[in-house]
Sequence to fold (292 residues):
Amino acid sequence: MRISRRSLFAGVAALGARALPSKAANPNFKISLAEWSFHRAIASRLMTNLDFPRVAREQFGIEGLEFVNGLWAAPTQDYVQSLKSMMQKTGTRGVMIMCDSEGAMGHSEKAARMRAAANHRKWVDIAAELGCHGIRANMHPSKEPHTPQEIDEFLKYCAESFTDLCEYAAAARMDVMIENHWGPSSNPDILLRLMKMVGRPNFGTLPDFGNFPKEVDRYEAVKRMMAYAKGVSFKCIDFDEQGNGAGMDLGRLMKTVLDAGYHSWVGIEYEGTRLPEFEGVIAAKRFLERLV
Fold:
């Protein structure tokens, strides 16, 4: 049976009413919402990117929005203005835009990687217009590096393209972030080497609690990435009956975040399948509200 947009939003309204924003006077961090949490709903046309601000505010009481460029209809000026108008009406604000499919920043051919860097510039401009503090880009290669020499070369390619992008973003006072988003970026040694090579104040990491291969200790990796963190992705897959995260120790990970002195946006990114997307976001928000 197909679920309509109206029944989807109405059915979650009662659940959302029990997940009102925390009123802590001095919160440890701010809760934002990653649009990827609704990628199945958007793909099924139950909602659109233009609905995202209203859904975040009305259904979950969340102000901060983490957009995903692949879920947009178009990056045109008219479209951006429509989105901006919806954000103003709902009292929401942009946190970042997660950018994919704009080319390989670690491509072995200079023309290709510099074209990728140039392709991201429009997203820097759009993010700035929406009040975001930055964009997330990927350090994907044209060919997966394996040997130490191949990794060294790959890092040189990335350092060139990301330095160019950071210089452009700096003019707009915008950050450029890299998430552990599979491939070389999910290897903390490689990612942190790039942080040091570029060495720009507006260049940093976006630690994601998931997205690590089995051989990587996620708790140690997140701890190391926090030294350069300009955002945190609260990736969650499931919750038990007591509201605790399943599959990873979310409490331990959040303690690592706070112990690092981080007190900015923590973005809910629900990626589970047992709970529907809207219910998963509510469960994640309830978990985080214990810590705020």
